[in-house]
Design a protein that fits this description.
heterodimer, A: 735 residues, alpha+beta, Aldehyde Oxidoreductase, domain 4, seven-stranded mixed sheet, 15 helices, 31 strands, 23% helix, 26% strand, globular, B: 170 residues, Ubiquitin-like (UB roll), DNA polymerase, domain 1, 2 domains, five-stranded mixed sheet, 5 strands, 32% helix, metal ion binding (chain B)
């Protein structure tokens, strides 16, 4: 094997797309410039909903400078009804826009103004006059008179409800109990790149440049919406400016751009404004989570119940699974979980980074902290003594369970020295507290295909419809190819985000690197074997080969690639079949988070002073990008604990804080020096690479580690998130 | 019909003369009139910093500034920081320290950091500075980079990247 390339997986290789990104040369969707003259589309949103459009006056807009067309439900091309076919699921069913006089929610598009320039379109959009006759809507799942239902399915979890053991009996027999309701706010993924699409038709063929995480189902969404065949659609998404769940599927800009391009015969660009994104792209529902936990006097868990209530956007089937971590974190003889939803007339609710665990660990790990304290047991010890040796819910064996290792490693690195009496640690006018929590996130492997093309000159192209949403995919796949084929990194080009390439997992659920990496691993392995066969065919023994320049090395000699490839290039396909890894064991990534906060004794201002995570994500594919992803997740966790909440005016169903001045994500100075420790590992049962999901793991556990630290600092247990200074103000010591 | 306004402006060392819509922001002028798509529109409200450019030596949110107000100005965008394929020290540091993930905020981060280094050199104070001296370097950087949002959460690495270059300079 080539000395230089045989150990490249795992090394901290700089991002191969780094130079493009630091010079402004990486082209995101809105940067794409079609050959034809592009027209700009601007969305006109409904100001009230639900209801019917009684009147829409577009005359002034149409007469305005530069306007090419104004699309409304009167003149929009015919589409298949929204939400059909029902069985297709949310990523592929019809996403019809401007289809009727019905207005679903505040912010629902009622018109698209298309003009020569953005300034013209934006101005004309203000001239469209819309009257909506509203009907009574449901906006608040916590209201008294709502209809609560069990969803048909949950995102990322097998069962909506679970029950093992006899909860009532075990809870009644518990020596110590915690019973509390926790509230988590609605949140927006708020990727820095607003959703954007440039659509072009060539006859009956549609090409869309768009920001999307998972390409292949998007083709079907266009097909099901527009009534065309999926093979008439091409999606291109080479660079995506962050997704965090909000770009998993096709959203409003995409369909509107396709309709606009159809009507005008021009390429049409629709870039959502930041305000648009808060209602024309999905969000995480606010949740109420009711937790009951019982333990015996020695701190052994006996009974856990976790009941979740969320909103589901009407006609958009998605329900989050906050009780997912409750089913898997600790052993108890009885565990009962339920998820309920209220159909509401609000913007779409969908996955946001670490769906389930982000808000599930936030509440559950806070409750665990509460019961540990009531038992008089250190929170680290409490978690260690309740670790599970089989899946607490299903009873199935656990593959590669390393939660306790993460907790021990984190405690050691952090210097955890037990709890102090809440409110007792003080430096000047700052109350200091420390807290910790476990992190857990299911590990997935999903089908993916890839192709590799080796040219006679030694250039290797790796192609699949996978996206790099900041996750480092270009780089990681380069490393997998380099090591598997023993070929230098600079001879590899990874090409992503084109639906003409083999269908992959896409980016979501932390399954991208494992699934796509395994497909590339398979393709390169096959290519390597094929080269060996061809060498053997020429009488050359080749047990191990490597590629360097345009030569293949084998058995101490080297041979021209040109003699081994047909027609100048060799193309090989590879894939990963998750059923081959279906061994009946439950798989998770694990972690433990430790934090130290300070709370200003006068104002209640909360600052995170230290945040440390110890993680097990199996084999690390790139030490640098993996660390970055974990840090990014931890910062998302700071947001969930302290900052982020989309506030709805529940009288009218409108989000009120639709920009970055009012929807607060962490800024640079909100974030202390983060400490990340990754356990060495190889999860052989997970996939051929031995890796596990990492992109969402850092969020899990971070929020409750901070919340538990705030409790230690102040003695005040806040059960709604984000925790704000005003929640603490009444509870701070006087003077 | 909106009257077009004449504009003479120098961008990345090159002088441009154009008749432009007075409603056009400096950001949209760069992106749509000059086809310089490095600067990004993350909010169009001056809240995220993805559009940061350097105008006459100072960093500004170009989405909040009308292009016509920049008659005669010297503007540097992300495209103007490298010399051919020779990346600037900050650009190299951003790659080395993995100071970005999706990369969408990166052009703004780097323009902002480029001007920040000059501010530090001039000793211009920030809210974390004492009356007579600057705070510790990383703290000054964290504060001064807080107008550039990064949703992927590359903040630690951004501070490390800038700090490595600021350290070299001092």
């Amino acid at each position: 094997m080539n000395e230089m390339t045989n150990k490249i997986i795992g090394t901290p290789l700089d991002r191969v797309d780094g130079p493009a990104k630091v010079t402004g040369q990486a082209t995101y969707t809105a940067d794409y410039r079609p050959t034809g003259k592009t027209a700009e589309g601007f969305i006109v949103e409904a100001a009230a909903a639900p209801g019917k459009i009684r009147k829409i006056d577009t005359q002034a807009a149409e007469a305005s400078d530069g306007v090419i067309a104004v699309l409304t439900h009167h003149n929009a091309p015919k589409q298949n009804p929204y939400g059909t076919p029902e069985e297709a699921g949310r990523f592929t069913q019809s996403h019809a826009m401007l289809e009727s006089d019905h207005v679903r929610h505040v912010g629902d598009p009622v018109a698209l103004v298309i003009a020569e320039t953005l300034e013209q379109a934006r101005h004309a959009a203000k001239l469209v006059r819309v009257e909506v006759e509203t009907s009574e809507g449901t906006f608040d799942q916590f209201a008294a008179d709502v209809e609560i239902a069990k969803p048909d399915s949950l995102d990322g979890a097998d069962e909506v409800d679970t029950s093992t053991g006899d909860f009532e009996k075990e809870f009644a027999a518990s020596d110590v109990t915690v019973e509390a309701s926790y509230f988590t706010g609605a949140q927006h993924s708020a990727a820095m790149e607003p959703h954007a699409t440039v659509a072009e038709w060539d006859g009956d063929e549609l090409t869309v440049h768009m920001a999307i995480q998972i390409v292949a189902p998007g083709l079907k969404a266009f097909a099901n919406t527009l009534g065309i065949e999926a093979d008439k659609v091409r999606i291109l998404s080479p660079f995506v400016g962050g997704g965090f769940g909000s770009k998993l599927g096709v959203h409003n800009d995409a369909i509107l751009a396709a309709l606009g391009a159809k009507v005008t015969g021009r390429p049409v660009r629709v870039v959502q404004t930041r305000r648009n994104v808060f209602s024309n792209a999905p969000h995480r529902s606010k949740h109420r989570q009711d937790l009951k936990i019982g333990a015996d006097a020695s701190g052994k868990l006996k009974a856990i119940s976790h009941d979740s209530l969320a909103a589901m956007a009407r006609n958009y089937p998605f329900a989050e699974a906050p009780a997912s971590p409750t089913r898997a974190s600790y052993f108890a003889p009885a565990i009962k979980t339920t998820h309920r939803v209220v159909e509401a007339d609000i913007p779409r609710v969908d996955s946001m980074r670490a769906p389930g665990e982000a808000i599930g660990t936030l509440t559950f790990e806070t409750a665990i902290d509460e019961i540990a304290e009531q038992c008089g047991i250190d929170p680290v010890e409490f978690r260690l003594q309740n670790d599970a040796d089989r899946d607490p819910n299903s009873g199935a064996p656990l593959a590669d369970r390393r939660l306790s290792e993460c907790i021990r490693e984190g405690a050691k690195k952090f210097g955890w020295d037990g709890r102090v009496t809440p409110g007792r640690r003080r430096e000047g006018n700052k109350l200091i507290g420390r807290g910790m929590a476990s992190a857990i996130r299911p590990n997935f492997l999903v089908p993916a295909e890839a192709e590799v093309v080796l040219s006679a000159n030694g250039q290797l192209r790796v192609r699949l419809d996978m996206t790099d949403i900041g996750t480092g995919t270009y780089t990681i796949l380069t490393q997998v190819a380099a090591e598997t084929l023993a070929i230098p990194v600079d001879q590899i080009t990874v090409e992503l985000g084109d639906s003409h390439f083999p269908a992959s997992s896409g980016s979501g659920g932390s399954f991208g690197a494992a699934s796509c990496g395994s497909a590339v691993f398979d393709a390169c392995g096959k290519l390597s074997k094929l080269l060996q066969q061809r060498l053997s065919g020429k009488g050359i023994a080749a047990n191990a080969i490597s590629v360097e320049g345009d030569r293949v090395r084998a058995g101490g000699n080297d041979y021209a690639l040109a003699d081994l490839v047909d027609d100048g290039a060799l193309t090989v396909k590879g894939a990963v079949d998750p059923s081959e890894f279906d061994h009946g064991e439950e798989e998770y990534s694990y972690g433990a988070l430790f934090s130290e906060v300070e709370v200003d004794v006068d104002s209640g201002e909360i600052r995170v002073r230290r945040l440390l995570g110890a993680f097990d994500a199996g084999r690390i594919l790139n030490e640098k990008t993996a660390r970055s992803q974990l840090m990014g997740g931890m910062i998302f966790g700071i947001g969930g604990a302290l900052l982020e909440e989309s506030t709805m005016d529940t009288r009218y169903g409108s989000f009120m804080n639709r920009d970055f001045a009012e929807y607060h994500i962490a800024v640079n100075r909100d974030v202390p020096e983060l400490e990340v420790h990754m356990l060495e590992g190889f999860s052989e049962k997970s996939n051929p690479l031995g890796s596990k999901g990492i992109g969402e793991l850092g969020i899990c556990g971070t929020g409750p580690a901070i919340a538990n630290a705030i409790y230690e600092a102040t003695g005040c247990r806040v059960r709604k998130f984000p925790i704000h200074m005003e929640d603490l103000l009444q509870h701070l010591p006087q003077g | 019909m909106h009257a077009m306004h004449p504009l003479r402006i120098t961008v990345n060392g090159q002088e441009h003369r154009a008749d432009i819509d007075p409603r056009r922001s400096l950001l949209d002028f760069a992106r749509d009139s000059l086809n310089l798509t490095g600067p990004k529109k993350g909010c169009d409200h001056g809240q995220c910093g993805a559009c940061t450019m350097i105008v006459n030596g100072r960093r500004i949110n170009s989405c909040l500034s009308l292009a016509v107000s920049h008659e005669g100005d010297e503007v540097t965008t992300i495209e103007g920081l490298a010399e051919g394929s020779d990346l600037s020290a900050l650009q190299r540091a951003f790659v080395e320290h993995d100071a970005f993930q999706c990369g969408f905020c990166t052009p703004g981060q780097i323009c902002s950091a480029t001007a920040l280094l000059d501010e530090l050199k001039e000793g211009l104070p920030s809210v974390v500075s004492s009356p007579d001296k600057l705070a510790e370097m990383d703290e000054e950087i964290r504060e001064r980079m807080s107008g550039n949002l990064c949703r992927c959460g590359a903040y630690n690495n951004i501070v490390a990247a800038i700090s490595s270059v600021a350290g070299d300079k001092s």
